[in-house]
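Annotators were shown the component list below and the corresponding predicted structure, then asked to write short factual statements about the assembly.
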Amino acid sequence: MNNLPLAKTPPMGWNSWNSFGSNISEELIRNIADKLVELGLKDAGYEYVVIDDFWSELERDKQGRLVADKKKFPAGIKPLADYVHSKGLKFGIYSCAGTHTCDGYPGSFEHEYVDAATFAEWGVDYLKYDYCYKPVHSVGENLYKRMGMALRSCGRDIVFSVCNWDCDDVWRWIRESGAHLYRSTGDIQDNWQSIKSIAESQLDRECYGGTYCWNDMDMLVVGMNGKGDNDFVSNVAGRLAGCTDVQYKTHFALWAMMNSPLIIGCDLRKISAEALNLLSNREVIAINQDPEGRGPYHIRHWCNPDHVFALIKPLCGGDYAIGMFNLSDGASEMSLQFFDIGLPYFSGYGLSFHECFSGEDEGVFTERRAIKLEPHDCRIYRCKLVRV
Ligand code: GLA
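Structure shown to annotators:
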């Protein structure tokens, strides 16, 4: 342990669930680790390789310890974690606060300390901790505090990624449980409606996430393009239908601006150039990973239509990130009055606008900024205050 705080900025990495569901194996995880490095994603900041549900045997061993599925992970978990570490990456695994995981494998309920010790022994750096099969009379807050404490006692730095889907007013007590991130929504699906409803459901929650305990809006679906092979999701029509490039761009922009962890969920072995380019956008990632870790606030101005809003996030060093979003289904003019973000006309200042997707400097504006946005599109600006 290095006694430094974990998750100073939102964790970044990859998780197996979205694209693979039960179809995971040692070979797949090794390939993904290789790809994170080869594609430059590790250099862009993605560091955790996380195995989701379906990794264990259905029974614990005689000592009550979890055992890796002998067919999927014949050598066990430790050599795989070692491999991931040899690539300069970190390794994550999954368990559940209830008696079973969501797919019926052993959960950590009443085994929190032995499981934390096992994970530490295997070299685990990140634990995603779900909420299925919670005994009705046990209190979730207590179960998360228990695993939080078990992880703190296990002798290894392990990021604690809570996944209770926004139940039990989680934002009220989660920070004290020791969690480093917490899932605040139901499961994301690879379609626009899912992205839009998750993002809008979190607009009033921005103040609850922050440094060392982030509001997790779920894994990214960027790059899935309707090709997810998750047998537990794909059997309901439309769930994995896919999005357009513009919708994926806006999804990534929202997650980045709203300080969500950036956990890739697509198959990196087959990623398209567009998706890779988007996920590698250093300027957008820098906004998400800003060292001050301030959340954004949102402005829905009366003169803009529904689902059209701006996000404003103060950055370290005095810059501001300003996102302008049109989640509606029609093209829209949208305007941001600088008065509403603390800059009255007679201040003597304007804002310079640099757009992070096009890389263009769009000039200095005073009083207001108005742009036209196509349906589901957005702009992400890094702005500086300048004397005018
Ligand atoms: C829950 C979680 C998902 C995934 C599955 C695995 O639904 O919210 O992210 O971990 O369980 O079964």
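Statements collected:
1. Residues 140-153 form the longest helix (14 residues).
2. The mean pLDDT is 96.
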